[in-house]
Amino acid sequence: MVIVKKTLKRILLMTSGGSAYVGIELLWRHYSHWSMFFVSGICFVILFELYTGKNKDLTIPEKCVIGSAIITAIEFAAGCIVNIWLGMEVWNYSNLPFNLLGQVCVMYSTLWGLLCLPIDFFCRNVLKIKEKYSKKLLDG
């Protein structure tokens, strides 16, 4: 039963994170790609586990730096697969300074760090709600 609950939680988180990111990208670039739903969903699940698990007491700047590194690493791996290997041309940062193979760049890594602020806010509020209802259930 625990495995089912964890799996359902991660599916819900992936769907929420993927949908939120695609919405942001539609506002930012006016288009998105289906692969971004999965890439951002995976990032969101990992960040949620990081921000609500044993590392929940990290400072906000630490969460932003670590979150940016995680998102950038996943973006690079996904870019190598989706853009370079499969040739889908979903994004290309070649024209931006300090890029790596056109898949990641300093500007977007910085933006990913800033995006970690609302993600952390969401995670902290989910924890508060969880603790509130857990306490109510235990108290009767």
UniProtKB/TrEMBL annotation:
<keyword id="KW-1133">Transmembrane helix</keyword>
<feature type="transmembrane region" description="Helical">
    <location>
        <begin position="12"/>
        <end position="28"/>
    </location>
</feature>
<keyword id="KW-0472">Membrane</keyword>
<feature type="transmembrane region" description="Helical">
    <location>
        <begin position="64"/>
        <end position="86"/>
    </location>
</feature>
<dbReference type="InterPro" id="IPR010540">
    <property type="entry name" value="CmpB_TMEM229"/>
</dbReference>
<feature type="transmembrane region" description="Helical">
    <location>
        <begin position="34"/>
        <end position="52"/>
    </location>
</feature>
<feature type="transmembrane region" description="Helical">
    <location>
        <begin position="106"/>
        <end position="127"/>
    </location>
</feature>
<dbReference type="Pfam" id="PF06541">
    <property type="entry name" value="ABC_trans_CmpB"/>
</dbReference>
<protein>
    <recommendedName>
        <fullName>ABC-transporter type IV</fullName>
    </recommendedName>
</protein>
<keyword id="KW-0812">Transmembrane</keyword>
